[in-house]
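Same chain as my last thread, 186 residues:
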Amino acid sequence: MKYVIEHFGKAFKWHLIEYEHISKIVGKENLMFTNVKEKKEALSAFGEARKESIADLNLPDICVLDPASDRILAPEDCKHFKYLVFGGILGDYPPRKRTKELLTSRMKNAETRNLGKEQMPTDNAVYAAKLIAEGKRFEDIKFIDTIEIDVQKGLSVQLPFRYVEVKGKPLISEKLVEFLKKRKTI
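reply #2:
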C-alpha cells in the first residue's frame, strides 16, 4: 500500500515533524507527498516528493480518505486499492470539508472512504488507515478526542482533534510535543 499526502499550502515546521512521523509509521518506501511546491528536498528525506497533485497523476486504484464520504474504510476495501490519499489540510476547527472541495471533487476515478467524522491529525489518520489495511476494523480502534499538552507551568495547549490510542496514550510525535513546548506564541 502506498500512502499519499496531498500537501496544501505552505510547509510549516509542524508539517515536517508530522510528515517525518508518518514516514516512521509506514516506511519511507510506502510514502508519497504530492502537490509539493516548496521544501521538496526536505520531504524527500521522508518519502517520494512530487510537485504534481495526485489528481493530475492518473494513478489506478486510488481511495481518497475524505471525512465527507458516506463509507468507512474497511479491511476488505484495502485489497482493492493501491493508494490511500490523505489531504494534509488539518487546521480548521470545526472542519470545513476542504478535502472534498480541494481534492475529492477533482478526482473523478477515485473512490472515497472515511475514518469516522472526527478530524484527525494526518499522522493519526495514516496510522488508523494502516491498522485497517492490516486487517483491523475501524470500530475496534480506540481513540482519544481532544488532548491537552502542558507546555510550561500553568500553561497548556488543547488540541481539539481525534487521536489513536496506543498503549493508553494518544499517538503524537514526541518531536511535536517538544515543538509545542518551545514555541514562543501559542
